[in-house]
UniProtKB/TrEMBL annotation, chain A:
This is Amino acid permease-associated region. Pfam families: Usp. InterPro entries: Universal_stress_UspA, UspA. Residues 226-248 are annotated as: Disordered. It comes from Natronorubrum sulfidifaciens JCM 14089. Residues 149-225 form the UspA domain. It comes from the Archaea.
From TrEMBL, chain B:
Residues 1-22 are annotated as: Disordered. It is a multi-pass membrane protein. The keyword Transmembrane helix applies. The chain crosses the membrane at residues 47-67, 73-92, 113-139, 159-177, 189-206, 226-250, 262-286, 306-327, 363-381, 387-406, 418-438, 444-463. This is Amino acid permease.
């Protein structure tokens, strides 16, 4: 079962919509409740004060995702740096994707973005497992300057999904600003699937592309992680550190 | 929060018991039963806390005062301070890697030597940091007045204290309400300061050694004899208090087994070298008598001597940044040390409440900020510095004693990643040197320090006599 991380700013009342809960049914969901603290506050101090309240909320959320059936769990983290926390937990859980929750009703139409240097194979197999035999329409979207190559890679991905029994259509945006084109295309869809891209100068200046899409499109964004270069950290995280040994 | 761990027992006068839970420490997080605490401070961040806290005092405030007391031999005073700091930083590093928790020195001593020693040190550390911060703020006030003077607005030294108090109040309010991440800013400030200093000291060093510029007439090295070297070492030891501040954030340090020792020992060595070179350059430029007349901001004239108006401006600007970053880093560690004692039921739990609106520990920050303002208003630079050193030196000495106590009878959980070289000589020397340095202080500072310790001991017997902490991780 594919694992997906759902990070929620739990003490700020962030929650998930019913549409997302239903959409993620085929996945093993880890609800990552996090609380970002200013540097004046030691995380342990916040834990003493807020742990019980956060745990109650997380238990309820995890139950919605099927904790009782064994398809969901939760973790609670107090941190100064949420990006670092997401990366660490995702690596430890070996989760393939994470969700930016957004809000949506029932998901009937899914937009899958293949733009740029992303792991198309992994996105396609993620979508296959996510949709399964449910009646959810999939639109493959690609923004490019090279119409011919773009068309080809869209076709190839569409064929794979079609063979798996999904309803697929494709949408190609040529010579348009990629992000704006994606947000326009998202208008008649309920949720977006996209790949995580390596950090670039652009993302350093304007923020992560995925976050910007999520902010513009209201609905949930599922981000397939770019794990190729992260297997090392995942292994390191699983190794017990020397201080674990005598702790009991 | 109802269930407390069976590993601690005893309650304070209000019926609160220490909140200690079993945890698993990894390089990236602390894992408790139900939650994880991310470790987010790297080696750079740790060095920035250590260097950022220390550099303000040693370079920008003390050269004039120290040269006035000991002549060019003040360089030796700073070197003695560095050696003492290193002798303590090594044992402190071992304890910090064994117990990477918030609270630093307080935590080691309460676990190694018991609740009474822990309470005295923990509460004294709070006051020690308060004295140190007040001292940094007064230094800041002097630089603020000098900055105005460089800009052509002469306001005179009577504005030093009002400016210092105003900024102290501003810092406290910013710390309660500010949620943006100032850590990156702190790293940048420290990097900028180090660059200014390396350029300035590099040029000044070459000049003073007679390689460039006119040779200066060498002054007698120790015009007042050896005793002033030692008393000056006691005075300027305040410039080495920062490495202990690194230990107060030990619970948030990434890869603590590696980064804590490197940050603590590294920051002491870096600032120690810079201090000694600074004194050499400063006394070569102007002579110690002239430096003494110039007082707290003597370095500005040293900058003018070597590099003209640009040099003076660079030093004034650096001094503002450095004293500000020292004060800010100290306010942060003060609130962490208050949290550490309140978690262990040595202070009311209320002290570690977090403000719901800003997410900051407003009670602890207020308990730091209030006394800081009162002390800043006194404007007694030397007294503030010495009392701060006194209270820290007691803690340093006891850190070394705690290390020896723990090593002689190692508990099961005691498994430091870093072991101090030269055990037991290094910690024994560290303890002796720390206590000895106290002996060279002014009687007034010793009395105030002692009085604070007695009050904290009295508080322990009144409030938390039944709390047991020794040996509980």
């Amino acid at each position: 079962m594919t694992r997906i991380l759902v990070p929620l700013a739990i003490l700020e009342g962030e929650s998930v919509s019913a549409g997302l809960t239903t959409l993620l049914e085929p996945m093993y969901v880890t609800v990552l409740g996090y609380h970002v603290l200013p540097e004046q506050t030691p995380p342990d101090q916040a834990r003493l004060q807020f742990e019980d309240r956060a745990t109650d909320a997380l238990e309820d959320l995890a139950a919605e995702f099927g904790a009782d059936e064994g398809t969901a769990d939760y973790r609670l983290v107090f941190t100064h740096n949420k990006k670092q926390t997401f990366d660490r937990v995702a690596a430890e859980m070996r989760s393939d994707a994470y969700a930016i929750p957004g809000t949506t009703g029932p998901v009937d139409q899914l937009l899958v973005a293949l733009t740029g240097d992303v792991a198309v194979d992994r996105i396609v197999s993620f979508v296959t497992e996510l949709v399964g035999d449910r009646d959810i329409g999939v639109t493959l979207f690609l923004a490019t300057d090279d119409e011919h190559a773009g068309q080809e890679s869209l076709e190839a991905a569409a064929v794979t999904l079609f063979d798996a029994g999904l309803h697929v259509r494709t949408e190609l945006a040529v010579d348009e600003p990629p992000l704006e084109a994606l947000v326009d295309a998202a208008a008649d869809h309920d949720a977006i699937v996209m790949g995580e891209r390596a950090p670039s100068l652009r993302s350093l200046i304007f923020g992560e592309e995925t976050e910007r899409v999520a902010a513009e499109s209201v609905g949930p964004v599922l981000v397939v992680r770019n794990t190729a270069d992260r297997d090392d950290t995942a292994d390191a995280a699983d190794q017990p550190s020397p201080s674990d040994v005598d702790d009991s | 929060m109802g269930d407390t761990s069976p590993s601690t027992d005893g309650t304070n006068i209000e019926g609160e018991s220490p909140q200690v839970e079993p945890t698993i420490e990894t390089d990236e997080a602390t894992i408790t039963d139900d939650a994880e605490l991310e470790r987010t401070i790297g080696l750079t961040g740790g060095l920035a806390i250590g260097i950022g806290t220390m550099i303000g005092a040693g370079i920008f405030v003390f050269p004039g005062l120290a040269a006035g007391n000991a002549g060019p031999a003040a360089a030796a005073s700073f070197a003695i301070g560095a050696v003492v700091a290193l002798l303590v930083a090594l044992p402190a590093s071992e304890l910090a890697t064994a117990m990477p928790k918030s609270g630093g020195g307080y935590y080691f001593i309460s676990r190694g030597l018991g609740t009474l020693a822990g309470a005295v040190v923990g509460l004294s550390l709070w006051f020690g940091l308060v004295f140190a911060t007040a001292f940094y703020l007064v230094g800041f006030g002097f630089y603020a007045v000098d900055t105005l003077a460089e800009l052509g607005i002469a306001v005179g030294n009577e504005l030093v204290i009002p400016i210092a108090v105003l900024f102290g109040a501003g810092f406290t309010v910013l710390n309660v309400t500010g949620t943006e991440n100032a850590a990156k800013l702190q790293n940048g400030i420290v990097a900028l300061l180090l660059s200014i200093l390396v350029v300035f000291l590099g040029y000044g060093g070459l000049d003073a050694a007679g390689i460039v510029g006119d040779p200066s007439a060498p002054e007698q090295f120790a015009p007042f004899g050896t005793m002033p070297i030692l008393t000056t070492a006691a005075l300027v030891f305040t410039s080495y208090l920062g490495f202990a501040q690194v230990a107060t954030v030990a619970g948030e340090m990434k890869d603590p087994g590696r980064n804590l020792p490197l940050a603590m020992v590294g920051s002491v060595i870096i600032v120690g070298v810079l201090y000694v070179v600074t004194i050499f350059v400063a006394t070569s430029a102007l002579g110690s008598e002239r430096l003494a007349e110039l007082g707290e901001t003597a370095m500005v004239e040293v900058g003018r001597h070597y590099l003209g108006a640009a040099g003076a401006f660079a030093i004034v600007f650096g001094g503002l940044l450095a004293t500000m970053s020292s004060a800010n880093a100290s306010v942060l560690s003060t609130s962490r040390s208050i949290y550490a004692v309140s978690r262990d039921a040595l202070l009311p739990k209320r002290a570690s409440r977090i403000n719901l609106r800003y997410g900051t520990p407003h009670v602890a920050l207020g308990m730091a900020g209030g006394p800081i303002l009162v002390l800043t208003a006194t404007g007694q630079v030397e007294l503030l510095a010495e009392v701060a050193s006194f209270l820290h030196l007691i803690m340093y000495g006891l850190i070394c004693v705690a290390l020896i106590a723990l090593r002689r009878n190692e508990p099961d959980w005691y498994d430091p990643d870093f072991r101090v070289p030269g055990y037991p000589i290094v910690p024994a020397l560290g303890a002796l040197a720390s206590f000895a340095l106290i002996g060279f202080m002014q009687p007034a500072s010793q009395l105030i320090g002692l009085a604070i310790m007695l009050v904290t001991a009295g508080w322990y017997f009144y409030y938390a006599r039944d709390v047991t902490l020794k040996g509980k991780l």
